[in-house]
Write a structure and sequence with these properties.
Layout: E1 7-13, H1 18-22, H2 35-48, E2 55-59, H3 62-72, E3 80-83, H4 99-105, H5 107-112, H6 128-145, E4 150-155, H7 157-168, E5 185-191, E6 194-202
Parallel strand pairs: 1-4, 2-3, 2-4
Antiparallel strand pairs: 1-5, 5-6
Helix pairs in contact: 2-3, 6-7
Amino acid sequence: MPSNDICEIVVVRHGQTLANRTGVLQGQYDTPLDEVGFAQAEAIAERLKNEHFDAVYSSDLGRAMDTANTIVKYHPDLTVIPSEGLREWNLGDLQGKEYKDLLLQYPAIMDAFKSEGEVPPIPNGESLEDFQNRVSGFMDRIAAENIGKRLLFVSHGGATQRMFTHVTGPLKPGNIRPLCANASLSVFQRRPAGWQLVAWNDISHLAHIKMHDTLTF
């Protein structure tokens, strides 16, 4: 348990989806976990089953809710609180399309996803600044309301990147954005002096599951 002046947030990325595996950009396009994704969700649930959480918040998208509900099977006193604040980046017209096609249609946007720096406007989508502000605002608000408590967030690769940026600050321009695997575990703490990164992209609980290289979003 954190001390009385700290809020600790354990963040889990959802398990794998067919779209992750086949190279489809998801964003807020709603997709379920695939067979491997459910196995990953069971693995992180097993790892966390004896951990204490005061509350569980999840993106309201299906792949995150499936992962969160798998975890809370071991925590019958908790109910998953769905939140739009933890949703993935709204990628507008790019959502639901194959990565290989997007590289031809939107090369500048797709290249900008990889490294720290500006991202060109996304047709009918959310700007990077708005995305960052949404995730940062949710993180700050929930932490302020839960000092002295330990929380579980279930979210997405891009949203978890925004949490990382909120806590550590932007990377040097041109450096590769930090990636987190499906069903990975990261930990942040809100302390009196500010935010602290405690753990990032821990996948030790997935050693027995065949992993694929998957898209962040």
